[in-house]
Amino acid sequence: MTNSQFLGFPAKTDFIPLPHPFFTQVVPQIQDIAELKVTLNIFYLLHYKQGYPCFVTYKELLSHSALMAEMDEEALRHALSSAVGRGSILHLTLNINGGWQDAYLINTESNRKIVKSIEQGEIPLRETMPEKEKLEHNIFVLYEQNIGIITPMVAEELKEAERLYSWQWIEAAFKEAVLMNKRNWKYITRILERWASEGKDSGENRQGTKKSSPNKYIRGKYGHLVKR
Q1: CATH label of the domain that carries residue 167
Q2: 20 to 30 A from 7, CA-CA: which of 53, 197, 206, 222?
Q3: CA gap 227, 153 in Å, rounded
Q4: 2 located within any domain
Q5: Average pLDDT over residues 27-42
Q6: Residue 53: is the preceding peptide bond cis (ω within 30°)?
Q7: Where does a domain end: 130, 157, 191?
């Protein structure tokens, strides 16, 4: 383990909201650092989630490199069990895409109602599941799997890229970067900007556009970066 001094938060930092009672009622009771890390990372992952209800699966936690860097699977399971037992986290077993998975939610009033409704059969499980495409098409997961830990500044750039480009372009740009052994976000960004400027697949894969002019991107937020 190598400890290096933290140099401070960058100017453009994405803040993760945490409920006030978490600091006043939950944190003082937590004795296990693994439980604290798992709980905080659930908040972090949920911040970038879409869909209803919003939950994190056990598989997602297990593949989260920032969390699992110094924790094994046994410690993860124990930490989750402690968080659920404490009441800060809710647990459900859901059938997702044909397989049963453990899912975790923040213990809020709305989530308690959702869990109760699901357990009582009032809400069919299929209605609570995000589409398979939404589960798979996650730029944050793609980044962590191919590049590494997401910094707050990169997180903002990833959200902006998701707004500007289609998933097909984003996934293809990551694949090209991996193929060229250029596993960094700047390289992937240049690929996307080049495609936006010069065109790719006749422009049919652009997010929310149909044969739109590349000038749209030249005039946009990243216009000064686009190759003309």
Answers
A1: 1.10.10
A2: 222
A3: 23
A4: no
A5: 96
A6: yes
A7: 130
Q: Which domain holds residue 54?
A: 29-130
In this structure, what is the dihedral angle of CA atoms 70, 136, 157, 194, given to the nearest 10 degrees?
130
C-alpha separations of 15 from 35, 43, 101 in Å? 21, 11, 29
Query: Which pLDDT tens digit goes with each residue over 100-126?
Result: 889 999 999 888 988 888 777 766 554
pLDDT tens digits along 167-193: 889 999 999 999 999 999 999 999 999
Tell me the C-alpha to C-alpha distance, in Å, between residue 44 and each of 37, 40, 123, 169, 187. Answer: 10, 6, 27, 26, 26
DSSP 99: E
| Predicted model pTM | 0.56
Residues 83, 158, single domain; the answer is no
User: How many of the other CB atoms lie within 10 Å of CB of 76?
Assistant: 19
pLDDT in tens, 200-210: 764 444 444 44
Whether residues 110 and 145 share a domain: the answer is no
Domain membership of residue 14 (yes or no) is: no
